[in-house]
UniProtKB/TrEMBL annotation:
Record-linked NCBIfam families: PRK14828.1, uppS
Record note on cofactor: Binds 2 magnesium ions per subunit.
Claim: Magnesium is one of the keywords in the record: yes
Function statement: Catalyzes the condensation of isopentenyl diphosphate (IPP) with allylic pyrophosphates generating different type of terpenoids.
E.C. designation(s): 2.5.1.-
Positions with a binding annotation for substrate: G34, N35, R36, R37, W38, H50, S78, T79, D80, R84, R201, R207, L208, S209
Keywords: Magnesium, Metal-binding, Transferase
UniProt protein name: Isoprenyl transferase
Pfam families xref list: Prenyltransf (PF01255)
Subunit structure of this chain's protein: Homodimer.
CDD domains reported in the protein's UniProt record: Cis_IPPS
Family: Belongs to the UPP synthase family. Z-FPP synthase subfamily.
Cofactor(s) this protein cannot do without: Mg(2+)
Amino acid sequence: MDDDGLLYRVYERRLIRELEAFDLPQHLGVIVDGNRRWAKEAGETTEHGHRVGAAKIAEFLSWCEGLRIPLVTVWMLSTDNLSRTPEELEALYEIITATVEQIAEAGYCVRLAGTAEGLPEEVRGGIARIQERAAPESQLTVNVAIGYGGREEIVDAVRELVRDHGQRGRSPEQIAEAISVDSIAEHLYTRGQPDPDLIIRTSGEQRLSGFLLWQSVHSEYWFCETYWPGFRRVDLLRALRDFCRRERRFGA
């Protein structure tokens, strides 16, 4: 091990010791951004950048499992991404499907957060079959946000809520009365789960881009300059340390 590697190991151990005195997030969200820029700067293809980023997701989840973080939501494909070139999307669909299968094979509980309507039939079918084989319960649950948009999630939740009440024969006035913060939350993609405590975004962009738009009202954010393929365990530990040091006011 070189001197830099040794220093990182020492620094990691110190960070872990610091975290032992705190409660870590029960739900961690991560926006995996920067695959294409990383590839461009490395002189590699966009597809290679996505493949390295996908491998980083599996590594990242193993770190979370080791830290006993029980719930992670990973934004793998946004609704905006669906407008990319057919060549890039074809590679992305194959990489995403393989990554979801790898997550399931690692023994994690897998849940889809997003709408599958904009995805090709073979991708929808492949992910559905993977979910059926995935562990129903695990130390770590992974929400894979595919075809995800925050505004679309809220629209889908309200539509589902209205349909549910419409099927019960409720009048428009009764349906309007039934719409509340709690009733909408019960129809989100993350229904039944706690809201994210911390959201991490890589690549230097300091915005959420609609990620978990409803759920993140009281979330803490942590942004870093590193592109996702270069994200290290020490970066996660630094994010968690920063989170633990904050005084959460929950909007106050």
